Amino acid sequence: MIGYGKMGHMIEQVAIGRGHEIVSIIDIDNQGDFDSPAFRSADVAIEFTAPHVAYGNCQRAWEQGVKVVSGSTGWLTNHADDVRRACNDEGKTLFWASNFSLGVAIFSAVNRYLAQIMQDFPQYEVSMREVHHIHKLDAPSGTAITLACQIKDEAPRFTDVPIESVREGEVPGIHSIEYDSTADKIIITHDAHNRMGFALGAVMAAEFTASHQGLLSMDDMMTFGEKNNKT
Asked: What are phi and psi of 154, to 5 degrees?
């Protein structure tokens, strides 16, 4: 494990509960353990840290031959080309998601389908609101940005998706997508009750990553709709 804050502790709890062994825990005060035999023995490293150190953590893990699951947001866009080259050309493996919640994966599939429908109904305009705890460093959230990109991919008429970001209390995460017209309003919302869903998803991603290679995402692990009909 790389990063041992609230999420790190919760991921540890879930991983042990699912029968896994945590062979190494790296935090800010023991960075030298990247070079340890214990770290090198890991099948997968789960990385939840901060935007300014996430890419460096991935590089150090890859140098030791360890695959990475990263839930740190706000960094991948700036390193997208380097990450793709490392995974596609150099044999490295990264599973990255802006949100590991299984509920968000389902919500994402609904978001895509609703956007497809709304492409043909110009009377509706789209907007988004995301609410998170006051400790979150990036705004808009990585999840909100991902959802907005999905909307624009599925409904090209939406060249921009306005996102309102709110930081208050200890809110784990709320994402609402609204389609408004003069006649009515359609809203879909995902409201996380706690961080346990994120921790479970991250551990499931590590289980998936252990037997897969390359640049991976929730779309690779979770399949919905038409994908389930493919042979």
From this structure: -85, -25
Nearest to 23 by CA among 53, 45, 48: 45
Predicted model pTM? 0.80
Strands 44-47 and 67-70: parallel
Parallel, antiparallel, or unpaired for β 185-191 and 174-180? antiparallel
Please write the tens of the pLDDT for every residue from 1-60. 999 998 999 999 999 999 999 999 999 999 999 999 999 999 999 999 999 999 999 999
Spatial separation of the C-alpha atoms in residues 16 and 185, rounded to whole Å: 44
| Residues in the chain, overall count | 231
| DSSP string across 150-215 | HHHHH-TT-S---EEEEE-TT---EEEEEEE-SS-EEEEEEE-SSSHHHHHHHHHHHHHHTT--SE
Q: Virtual CA dihedral for 163, 11, 66, 53, nearest 10 degrees?
A: 50
Q: Determine which one of 79, 136, 152, 212 is catalytic.
A: 136
Active-site annotation holds for 227: no
User: Which residue in the list 67, 92, 132, 190 is annotated as catalytic?
Assistant: 132
- For the sheet containing 215-216, what is the strand order? 44-47, 67-70, 94-96, 215-216
Active site residue 136: yes
Distance CA 151, CA 148 (A): 5
